[in-house]
Design goal:
The structure is a single chain. The protein is built from 19 helices and 38 strands. The longest helix is centred in the N-terminal third of the chain and has 19 residues. The strands form nine sheets. The protein has an eight-stranded antiparallel beta sheet with strand order 3-2-1-14-13-12-11-10, with helices on both faces. The chain has an eight-stranded antiparallel β-barrel with strand order 15-16-17-18-19-20-21-22. The chain has a five-stranded antiparallel beta sheet with strand order 27-28-29-30-31, with no helix packed on it. The protein is α+β, with helices and mostly antiparallel strands.
């Protein structure tokens, strides 16, 4: 995921004499003054002031709308950075503002520098683009059942046929191996496509090109490239190594998931450094753009020849019905080539654990825009910013009125409720699904799940992962991509086959999970957090990825404890409850001791005009409602009773709404099982004090009180009226894992359908699901009631 196809120690000095020490002290003082005087942001030049204002508004909107901690941007006109600015916080916890000098990991923008480094040696005749790579790496021999040898040209333009990821040093691996070990591990792999025949993005391929450079140069890759390329270009805040001076200015970046996970991004170094390990700033990348516009000249030195750059900016292979001579888009040597409004563009995107970057230049117009953000894979945002920036810059240079940057607005709740559902035939249509109050689109064929917003009379994809696709809704259908799809009734899915069921689960690392789920009867991978890929069975334990996407043409090979995808091996993760179906933890302290402390404590004092509590028992309103109040038994996460009676109380309006839900579900053959409802405050304190701090997301803080304490929250599930059996959901009740999230994407179609059935029934009567617990629902007026601490004994005596 370094790029979405669309990632030294100083030598110890000996003692010096007094005069030299004085000189060094003076130099250090001067350097400290220079660092203090570093210009953090560059105000827009007169010609671009209106552009800067328009883009500032856009970036601030994107930060708020997409919840992005920080974004930095730079604009370049010829040899001048005409504006550079940071927005948001490089360190949200310490409230350190982002600036134009904030350091970021730039992911696959790194590839541009690796490939220019290779081309420097091509210019000197030390490397040949079209010689077999074994000419320079005789020990490199991945299995190749096809005709033809891999060349540097193919490696640099993603036509080598290699896997996306190497077995060692891949995007997921934290061991930080050497570049040599990373590249040689590819000897244990097999080419996916014949060299030169198919555009397949490969981080491994660029790692091989960088290793060939290292071997030919006779020096380690990172310091060599710094000396021969980065320093001559004046990129003083850039490196392929995590140098202390840069790490001190490195922004904090963040990971996220569809269902609500958020955590700090890992910072380990990749074994395939040439493919995506560079650190830089938007201003350094602006200086790089100026070198390109100067035909490879930097500070009077020819870093790379003009004719070399011209060659790098030409598509290397024809695609579709085009011939190579008239093709205007595709992969050049390192650079992605495209057009924007008739203007040639060159550049690259990057995405590496929490960072997203976009570098885009118009070499014929000599303007460029760079944007970097600290939310994982938010390249749709940085891409949108740089596209708008170039559009505005062209207008400003032509002294024309600036085009408007259109903003999207939220889809009204009633429209979200009306539109959600499935459109088209099974496995060839799209899902429109509601999550967190917004509408999302997910094609059956896979890809990203993306948010929809309104723009004028249309709906438009406007998401961290994608932007710009429009959708029209009319009657009972939608039109997308010129195709009209009618809304279809989603029937209750069948359980998956035994073979698929055995493969379902989570694999990999905390920092990058691979989900194997069943969707539409197919085994489906959700990989690198965001890409859904329906898999096709090729052998008993082997499935194939589609011929597009991140893992184009690759395989998923299963064994009982792992699955191998590309060169990476994902270990099966232990998930779920114990053998009895109950999720359990070891209490931090004995529960009887915690009960004594909790009963002696008092709830937090509250101010406000609250409604008068009126708690009623749910089964008194509908005897068909089953009670399975786990906290009155030992079948709960603490393995000991905390309630003295198996009762379920709620405030009367909420209780009556639950009874209406129950009556509605009976006509569909289902009944309600209540696991918990009103909870005295002292029990909330027991839960909090018994649970390890790492799991506190799953329990309420007694200092604030639980929603259950107010009598308008209920934990419940469904059972089949005919069999009396409880329905299976994506996770079990009270499970302290991601499977409990209301929008958890894993599991089976049937489990998710049953979860949605419960949710739709509850929300139709004024309840809202709690995002981290599929079973927990809050009635609309829950905040109007006070925290209550009446015991069940007290309620029974009324």
């Amino acid at each position: 995921m370094i790029s979405r196809f669309t990632s030294l120690r100083r030598p110890h000095a000996k003692y010096a004499g007094p005069r030299l020490i004085i000189s060094l002290v003076g130099l250090l003082v001067a350097l400290a003054g220079a660092a203090t005087a570093r210009v953090q942001n560059i105000a827009p030049q007169a010609e671009y002031q209106a552009v800067g204002k328009a883009l500032s508004n856009m970036v601030q909107h994107e930060i708020a709308d997409k919840k992005i901690p920080a974004i930095s941007i730079a604009l370049v006109d010829g040899q001048t950075i005409v504006w550079a600015q940071g927005f948001g916080y490089a360190d949200p916890d310490k409230k350190v503002a982002a600036t134009a000098e904030t350091v970021y990991r730039v992911g696959s923008v790194s590839k541009l520098f690796t490939d220019i480094g290779v081309m420097q040696l091509v210019e000197r005749g030390e490397l040949n683009l079209d010689s077999p790579i074994q000419t320079y790496l005789p020990n490199f021999h991945p299995k190749n059942k096809f005709d033809g040898k891999i060349t540097l040209r193919e490696l640099m333009s993603h036509r080598s046929g290699l896997l996306r990821e190497p077995p060692v040093g891949n995007y997921f691996e934290t061991s930080e191996p050497t570049l040599e070990a990373t590249v040689l591990s590819l000897n244990n792999t097999e080419l996916v496509y014949a060299p030169g025949t198919h555009a397949k993005y490969s981080n491994a391929g660029v790692a091989v090109a960088g290793y060939a450079l290292q071997v030919k140069a006779g020096r380690p890759f990172a310091p060599y490239l710094k000396q021969t390329l980065l320093q001559p270009m004046g990129m003083t805040s850039s490196s392929f190594l995590p140098e202390p001076a840069l790490i001190g200015r490195l922004a904090k970046a963040y990971m996220w998931s569809y269902d609500g996970l958020n955590f700090a991004a890992p910072t380990f170094q990749l074994g395939m450094a040439p493919a995506g390990s560079m650190y830089s700033t938007v201003t350094d990348l602006g200086r790089f753009a100026s070198v390109l516009f100067a035909h490879g000249m930097a500070s009077g030195r020819q870093v790379i020849k003009p004719e070399t750059l011209d060659a790098m900016w030409k598509p290397q292979y024809a695609s579709g019905n085009e011939t190579l001579g008239n093709q205007k888009s595709g992969y050049g040597l390192g650079f992605g080539i495209s057009e924007q409004e008739g203007h040639r563009t060159i550049g690259h995107d990057g995405a590496i654990y929490g960072f997203a970057s976009s570098f885009k230049a118009m070499p014929d117009d000599q303007i460029a825009a760079i944007a970097i953000a600290t939310k994982d894979s938010s390249n749709a945002v940085t891409d949108h910013i740089v596209r708008e920036a170039l559009r505005l810059m062209l207008a400003a240079r032509a002294h024309q009125p600036l085009p408007e940057i259109e903003e999207t607005v939220a889809i009204p709740d009633e429209m979200v409720a009306r539109l959600k559902g499935h459109y088209g035939e099974r496995n060839t249509g799209v899902d429109l699904k509601e999550q967190f109050g917004e509408l999302f689109l997910l094609p059956d064929s896979g890809g990203y799940q993306v948010r929809l917003r309104r723009q004028g009379n249309d709906l438009i994809v406007d998401d961290a992962l994608s932007y710009g696709t429009t959708l029209k809704a009319a009657g009972n259908g939608i039109t997308i991509g010129g195709e009209t799809l009618q809304k279809t009734q989603v029937e209750k899915p069948e359980p998956p086959s035994e073979q698929i069921g055995a493969l379902l689960g989570e694999y990999g690392w905390d920092h990058d999970k691979l989900y194997m789920l069943e969707k539409g009867g197919k085994l489906t991978a959700l990989i690198e957090w965001f890409e859904f890929d329906p898999l096709t069975q090729r052998a008993d334990e082997m499935y194939g990825f589609p011929d597009h996407g991140l893992y184009d043409g690759e395989r998923a090979e299963f064994s009982p404890t792992q699955v191998k995808v590309s060169g990476a091996t994902f270990k099966r993760r232990p998930i779920g409850a114990g053998n009895d179906g109950i999720f359990r933890i070891k209490p931090v302290k004995p529960v009887p001791e915690l009960r004594k402390e909790a009963l002696a404590a008092k709830p937090p004092a509250e101010k406000g005009d609250f409604l008068q509590p009126h708690l009623v028992e749910l089964t008194s309103l509908d005897p068909s409602i089953k009670l399975d109040v786990r906290y009155a038994t030992s079948n709960n996460f603490l393995s000991t009773p905390v309630y003295t009676e198996e009762k379920a109380y709620m405030q009367r309006p909420a209780a009556e709404a639950v009874a209406r839900v129950s009556r509605g579900l009976k006509g569909k053959g289902y009944g309600l099982i209540i696991h918990d409802a009103y909870r005295p405050w002292y029990v909330t304190k027991i839960f909090w004090d018994a649970t390890p701090p790492s799991e506190h997301i799953f329990v309420a803080d007694p200092a604030e009180g639980s929603r259950h304490n107010r009598g308008c929250a209920v934990d419940l599930s469904l059972y089949d009226l005919a069999t009396g059996k409880e329905l299976e959901m994506t996770g079990v009740y009270d499970e302290m894992s991601e499977r409990s999230y209301a929008y958890y994407p894993g599991g089976t179609s049937l489990e998710r359908w049953q979860r949605d059935l419960l949710r739709d029934a509850m929300e139709s009567e004024g309840f809202k699901v709690y995002p981290y617990e599929w079973w927990h629902f809050d009635y609309k007026d829950w905040q109007k009631y006070p925290i209550d601490n009446q015991t069940f004994e007290e309620l029974s005596r009324r």
